[in-house]
Design brief:
Organism: Ruminiclostridium sufflavum DSM 19573
Protein name: Glycosyl hydrolase family 63
CATH architecture of the largest domain: Alpha/alpha barrel
GO molecular function, one term: Glc3Man9GlcNAc2 oligosaccharide glucosidase activity
Mean pLDDT: 91
Low-confidence stretches: 581-589
InterPro entries: 6-hairpin_glycosidase_sf, 6hp_glycosidase-like_sf, Glyco_hydro_63_C, Glycoside_hydrolase_63, MGH1-like_GH
Strand order of the largest sheet: 6-7-8-9-17-13-12-11-15
Keywords: Hydrolase
Strand content: 15-25%
Number of strands: 32
Distance between the termini: 18 Å
Helix content: 25-40%
Shape: globular
Radius of gyration: 28 Å
């Protein structure tokens, strides 16, 4: 059998990948996990970019109720943006370009001040869900420039204006001409009046981190920047009794260092000590406490307490803006140089174009020469990062301009995936009942229905976030897509993420996987099995490893999850295998959720997602030789396909529209051509089974082939007479007592596929220059007072599903990615070309399904590539991103304008938009045929 281009490519690169220093660190970490006393093992994941970029406004910090986390009825949020300066967080920390250990006991981040703003910049600024046009919306420019799986080298770039006009941003929060009002619209970057702040981190060892901070004055004026590298303890002592005493102090006997000490209160009173070493060019080291200032936060008494979370801000602003006396300033900063939060204060006076660099070292090593060998160690880690990505990417980092551009886009996509890791800390039972050292929560909080069902949840884990500012919480179906990208560079972490949501401290005892923080009970498309099967195959293809133990563990858990779906989400409640509810029907699309009599409509995509779930479970079970389980999911697949065929006169297929559509009971098919109708295409898979001579006997109940034949004989209505089940390409090979069986199973047949593709490839309908739209461009649907029409950007009419997204026209990467994958499988299934008739002249055009898939992939990638004018469509018409220092920085937005490809929604949702890396990888391998 001929090898695929991917098999040839990875077999030629495998030694380079496995022998790269970064992959060796991954192997050392795996050895550590298996036995922490193993001298070959090292905990390289101990420290990483695990700090959130927004902790305020989250459900975790809300002690009113889930729905009031953003505020309601004109009232402020339970933990507002304004309180973040003055109030200690309960469950996590946030910061700019931040690091923490894996339990977030110690955090490091940047604080800055430009001598113009009313406060120092300790965290990124943005609008709340109620204020922003698309919901919560960060109003800053920062970029995840580089990162490696073990965080051995990381790079983060922040663009800090000479003056940040907070009032103008807030006052224009509802402006949308032609796009949302952004920081650049205030003129903040006119004349390049900003500082380029670059944070780089290189691990010298597992708990020895070298830090390089470079500030460039990009404008034409001499300006001063106050740079305040900050280290703090997460506040664990104000809520419950802490087992450790935590103190930061000016190091004794060591020049220019902050000692960070955690000492056990009970015997044995052992201690762990980290040190933040700093250069001696600083102004001073400022110490305060990471405690709530009750007077500033709540207008209540501090009861004699001194020094608070806001102390460093108050000191800098008080001294340099308000010109307070030294005596007045000491109320903010502890003169004894101790606390639980400390900042090293540098003043960088920079001429136009001048750069200044500060180096630090956060380390568990005690040394008098902390910066000896610093530059060579940094250079080595950067080289090793290049070595790792050069081995994986099909493109040449030093090749042609186009190759360099694609390499850069892909590498920043991977970097964004890695920077979006975060400690997700939430113990629901404690959250409901409150803390022993705090006032008792309200009854409304303690009886919050959205949380009561999840009292078992206990998370203190590093999770992959969609976006650490706009979505600083996990979302189950987002995470599944994340793992398919992460699996290319770090399959161990990808597998860990998939298994984690299935563990007892996440998954509900009834088998439900928690959806997302705002409503764990909600229903997301069941793509966990799809992701698990993809990650397993990726690891085998790229790294030559078959992790069957992972498959065994995930199969057992997904069996529970599937049973939950069958028992709880069958919308008919009569076990008719028709699924709906919650987010499953992509509520963002369907403005029509009820028929005129108030009953739920029946959703075409919900049932199709379940068919996809069955096919993945068949393959996972088959890989493990669990043939009874294979047959179980084959049976479910058959009955789901049958159910799809029995909805109304033609099932979910709308003969008039020649498309799959939702069904509104006796009111019939809705006739809306949206992404809902594409999901049935995703339910296609090549099914394989291998049986030995003992398993393969006449009438065997283990055999998929015999099971299918039984259904054909005994229940022809379910197979031969069901147009929604298509099985083709059956083959058998008997050799050495082993029977290998293979076939393709699909919901959509060739005729329907051709009709769907006709709409899909029509520029007046689904086809954009930048991918496939989520709603047909010509849609103008009116039905019993409801209407839905094409909106290529943010929704103008209403905030749907929290206001964060619009599936009524924009381009979304996860749906496009699954469509591309499906079309390639249809190419294998149907073979040859497929004829599409031009709607204008009726002439047939012969199109290769692989070419269609590749064309869609190219369109998606072109969102980020420079076009002939040197512009990247992702940035719309913003001239800012054509300037030097901006032109090669990439943001991976949540979704994209259906006509011009401009990025929309969350600006750093590399999460599922990181799938661009997968598309670049596959196209690069196929095109170069390495």
């Amino acid at each position: 059998m001929n090898k695929t281009s991917s098999e040839v490519f990875y077999s030629s690169r495998r030694d380079k990948i496995l022998n790269s220093k970064e992959h060796i660190r991954i192997s050392q970490y795996n050895a550590y996990l298996k036995n922490i006393d193993n001298p070959q093992g090292k905990n390289w994941r101990k420290w990483g970019c695990y700090l959130s970029e927004r902790q305020w406004g989250t459900v975790r910090e809300s002690y009113d109720c889930v729905d009031n986390s953003w505020g309601e009825d004109g009232n402020n949020a339970s933990f507002s943006r304004e309180q973040a300066l003055n109030r200690a967080y309960r469950w996590g920390e946030d910061g700019i370009a931040g690091l923490s250990d894996d339990h977030q006991f110690i955090c490091f981040s940047l604080s800055l001040w430009n001598e113009a703003d009313p406060c120092i910049k300790e965290r990124l600024y943005g609008l709340t869900n109620r204020e922003g046009i698309h919901g919560e919306d960060v109003k800053e420019y920062y970029f995840y420039a580089d990162n490696t799986p073990m965080h051995s080298y990381m790079k983060y770039i922040y663009k800090y204006p000479y003056y940040y006009n907070y009032d103008e941003i807030y006052n224009n929060r509802n402006s949308k001409v032609p796009y949302e009002f952004e920081l650049s619209h205030t003129g903040a970057f006119d004349g390049n009046r900003y500082f380029d702040v670059t944070a780089e981190y290189a691990k010298n060892d597992t708990e020895d981190i070298l830090i390089k901070l470079t500030v460039k004055n990009c404008g034409n004026e001499r300006k001063t920047l106050h740079l305040l590298p900050t280290v703090l303890f997460r506040n664990t002592w104000s809520f419950n009794k802490d087992l450790y005493e935590k103190t930061m102090t000016k190091a004794q006997g060591i020049k220019n260092a902050v000692e960070i000490i955690q000492r056990r209160k009970q015997l044995p009173a052992d201690a762990s000590i980290m040190r933040l070493y700093c250069q001696d060019a600083y102004e001073n080291i400022l110490f305060t406490e990471n405690n709530t200032d009750y007077e500033a936060a709540f207008k209540s008494s501090n009861a004699g307490r001194q020094y608070f979370k806001n102390g460093i801000n108050n000191y800098i602003i008080g001294k340099y803006r308000e010109h307070l006396s030294e005596e007045e300033l000491w109320q903010f900063i502890n003169p004894r140089e101790k606390g639980t939060k400390a900042s090293v204060h540098y003043r960088l006076a920079l001429n136009p174009g001048q750069s200044g660099t500060v180096v630090l070292r956060l380390s568990d090593v005690e040394t008098d020469l902390p910066f000896e060998g610093f530059d060579s160690a940094f250079t080595r880690r950067k080289y090793e990062a290049d070595e790792f990505y050069d081995a994986i990417s099909p493109y040449d980092r030093n090749g042609s301009a186009e190759e360099q551009d694609l390499y850069n886009i892909q590498r920043q996509a991977f970097a964004g995936m890695l920077w979006n890791k975060q400690l997700y800390n939430l113990i629901v039972e404690q959250w409901l009942e409150g803390d022993e050292m705090q006032p008792r929560p309200s009854d409304r909080h303690m009886k919050d229905e959205k949380m009561l069902k999840w009292k078992h949840m206990y998370s203190n884990d590093i999770l992959s976030m969609p976006d650490k500012w706009e979505y600083p919480w996990f979302a189950a179906w987002d995470m599944a897509f994340h793992t398919v990208t992460l699996g290319i560079i770090d399959p161990e972490f990808a597998k860990h993420q998939l298994l984690l949501l299935c563990m007892e401290w996440f998954m509900h005892p009834n088998g439900q996987i928690p959806a997302y923080e705002w409503d764990f009970c909600n229903v997301n498309p069941p793509v966990h099995a799809w992701a698990a099967w993809n990650v397993y195959q990726q690891e085998r293809l790229i790294y030559g490893t078959e992790d069957r133990d992972f498959l065994e563990r995930i199969l057992d858990k997904l069996n529970m999850n599937f049973t939950w779906w069958i028992n709880n989400v069958d919308s008919s409640k009569g076990n008719d295998n028709v699924f709906g509810g919650g987010f499953l029907g992509l509520d963002n699309i369907r403005i029509v959720s009820k028929d005129p009599k108030g009953r739920d409509i029946v959703e075409a995509d919900g049932t199709s997602w379940m068919a996809r779930f069955c096919l993945d479970m068949i393959n996972i079970a088959g890989e493990l030789g669990k043939h009874d389980i294979q047959r179980k999911y084959l049976q479910h697949f058959i009955y789901i396909c049958d159910a799809m065929n029995k909805i109304g006169e033609h099932g979910f297929w709308n003969e008039k529209e020649e498309f799959f559509c939702d069904y509104a009971n006796e009111f019939g098919s809705l006739g809306i051509c949206s992404a809902v109708g594409l999901v049935p295409l995703f339910a296609i898979e090549r099914i394989r089974q291998r049986l030995d001579s003992k398993q393969r006997y006449a009438g065997s109940f283990m055999s998929i082939e015999d099971t299918l034949n039984w259904y054909k004989r005994k229940r022809p209505d379910l197979i031969d007479k069901n147009e929604n089940i298509n099985i083709n390409g059956i083959s058998r090979e008997d050799r050495n007592g082993i029977t290998a069986f293979e076939c393709y199973m699909a919901v959509v047949d060739k005729e329907k596929l051709s009709k769907i593709l006709k709409k899909l490839l029509d520029k007046n309908k689904f086809l954009s220059d930048f991918g496939i739209r989520s709603l047909s461009k010509d849609c103008n649907f009116n039905w019993y007072g409801k209407n839905i029409f094409y909106e290529p950007a943010e929704s103008n009419r209403e905030k749907i599903m929290g206001g964060n997204s619009n599936w009524r026209g924009p381009i979304w990467f996860p749906i496009n990615y699954m469509l591309i994958e499906a079309l390639r499988k249809y190419g294998d299934y149907l073979g040859g070309s497929i004829e599409i008739r031009d709607s204008e002249n009726g002439e047939g055009i012969s199109l290769n399904l692989y070419e269609i898939a590749d064309d869609i992939a190219e369109r998606l990638i072109s969102v980020f590539k420079k076009n002939q004018e040197g512009r990247r469509p992702v940035y719309g018409m913003q001239e800012l991103f054509e300037r030097s220092g901006w032109e090669n920085l990439i943001l991976f937005f949540e979704y994209f304008h259906g006509d011009n490809g401009a990025g929309l929604g969350a600006s750093h949702q590399t999460g599922w938009t990181g799938l661009a890396a997968n598309l670049i990888q596959q196209l690069g391998i196929d095109r170069k045929k390495l």
